[in-house]
Amino acid sequence: VFFLSFSAVYAQIPETIFSEDWESGPGNWTISNGVWEVGFPSAGPGDCRVEGSAACAGTVLDDNYPGDTDSQLISAPIQLPTVSPGEQISLSFWQWFSFAGCDEGFVQISVWDQSTSTWSAWTNLDGTMVNNSPWSRRLNDLTSYAGEIVRIAFYHTARTGGICSSSSTGWYVD
Predict the structure, then answer these.
(1) Gap between the Cα atoms of 78 and 91, Å rounded
(2) What would the mean pLDDT of 157-172 be, rounded to a whole number?
């Protein structure tokens, strides 16, 4: 489950400003270059992380991802609230990944520029996904983007050739 939440640092219950569980398919998310899928995995972790959740997003849900691909799973635009001192905006989700040697994943953000009516270039948020990880919780601080209209992307890149000749089961988000 993918959450954007807004909360005061000392708040007990954060306010969710956007969430996605992919139970009804990709919804308003777009997929570039076709590696990402939304549904029920039979490869990788074999199932989704969140109890009661049957669907999640992943790179090829029933096999290994192909080499020489760059693919993004991109959210619809999200209006982030403004914040006061002591408040923060956080992105939180569960992830599982298994990447081959030269492959990796990034969480990215793009900001809408109202003066030019264009999206900024994608910026990688902290932390690159490489190698392997069991289901784990990921948290990114988005407070510096408060008040902006943003898109979030899960960017998967795979290379083959030379020492980069294999693939793996990929990256799953719930």
Answers:
(1) 12
(2) 82
